[in-house]
Amino acid sequence: MCGIIGYCGPKSTVQVLIEGLKRLEYRGYDSAGVCVCGDGPLTCLKRKGKIRDLQGHVPAATDGRWGIGHTRWATHGEVNDVNAHPHLDCEGRIAVVHNGIIENFAILKEKLQSEGHSFASETDSEVIPHLIEKYYAGDLEEAVKKALGLLKGTYGIVCMHVDQPQLLVGARCGSPLVLGIGNEEMFLASDVTAIISHTKQVVYLEDGEVVTITPSGYRTTDMRDQEIEKRVELISWELEEIEKAGFAHFMEKEIFEQPESIKRAMSGRLDHDQATAHLGGLNMSNRDLLNVERVRIVAAGTSFHAAMVGMYLLESLARVPCTVEISSELRYRNPIVERNTLHFVVSQSGETADTLYAMRELQRKGATVLGICNVVGSTIPRESDGGVYIHSGPEIAVASTKAFTSQITVFYLFSLLLGRMRDLSFEAGKRFIQDLQSVPPKIEQILSRSRSILALAEKYCCYKDFLFLGRGINYPVAMEGALKLKEISYIHAEGYSAAELKHGPIALINDETPSVFLVPEDSLRDKIISNMKEVKSRRGRVIAVAVEGDREVEDIADDLIEVPRISEPFYPLLMVVPMQLMAYHCAVHLGRDVDQPRNLAKSVTVE
Length: 607
Ligand code: AGP
Prior knowledge:
By secondary structure, this protein is an alpha/beta fold.
């Protein structure tokens, strides 16, 4: 969602801000702006549309010694130049960028207006500079703290004042903010991608913390002005990882990275001697694990689909009863937390508000909650009771691909670990490890056929509606295939259990609604073949994703995508790749904005 960057130091502030905003583009946004200051007044420039539109609007001579920038994803007020950030106080001496939602802004705005403040925008965020203006008496940090004390809601903010040269104040409550420490320069950003080209030394702020930076130092305090000692952390990945590396889009690059990212998720975690897995971050002894009677997994979107695959794995391999829930639903239904139930939250970003709040609600009720996350240092891993990083590397495209396969890989590892403590034999554990390790080269084979999937995409992308159908452990993969297609190509698609067809969706079948069937070589194959025949007999077109050499499926389907043979539980990791490629090529062919699809944000930090 919205992105923040702040800078003070010797470099061209405009350049640092614009470059940082470009690196934040992946989060999804609809407008952007910067405010810089040199020796004169604040210069604030904001624009609806892309960063390049803003850039074209910045006069060549504009620069400063400190400044702030923002990409906005509208929540309050339409998408236009005025509602874009930064927002200013009445005199144009204070500028603020804000991520999050101020829930009590209407009351605050009314009061400020009655006191003579005049507002330019329809946003909730604009109350912040006016509150700071009200309380400012020469100390920006103090005024910011007084203003923040009145806010209800969530925020990550950075503020500047024309009279406080090269000083920025940042604060966080529910929206991430990270400090970057450079050589005689400091940065504030909503995520590290914005600053990694300048520094790898960072400090993650916690909720309720305020940071004040100048080029030579920083001070972290709480709202009562107590100093807080913060740990400086080192970002472990390289700048190249957030570059396209010759691919047309980040999504394509990330799809092709999967053989490597899956290997990284397994790396150092397989124990061949004991035929099990080690997941040190769980913070649980074998005895703790033995006491687990149930597992509940909570997540949103693609991570929810990975969680569903996890449920099938845990129940079939570890024989532990498992449920999966959408995080936004769980939080508000007063969930029952039972003793000996282990909870997982799954989130690529580690910042998804629905999942984070669900986790906090579970923890408040006494649950042990483990995170399965990608972004190191994000809020969920920091607040959870333990967990596993998937180590996919930065996922920049809004549509999640490599994170999905790595999240699933972690569920394979956890199911192996738990399974080996229950009724999975040593021999079965050995075979399991072999099968898991055979996945990356098999994905390579699928990726090498990307061109044939491109041809299929060109043939089918003119259709308006699709059904994606799978069964058992591949049912969530069908849901994921439908989500991928709809989010980046804007083609309507639904994912269903193939068995559910006859309970309703079959009414949609005609020659204008193609069905994508996932047909692995498993115990449900014959039943899926029957479902395919039901579709064919109603003039429906069938695209089958099936195992190499499956002639029966080939005879029925209009088009076929082949995947290599593998043992039954591992098909999700193979089946999803053609779905990702199909969605990608459809979107490219239709001229969509593949990496930043309309209305979507990479990490959804508001409810
Ligand atoms: C995936 O393609 C989507 N962009 C979206 O569904 C995403 O998976 C969801 O918002 C959850 O995000 P998280 O994994 O970062 O929590």
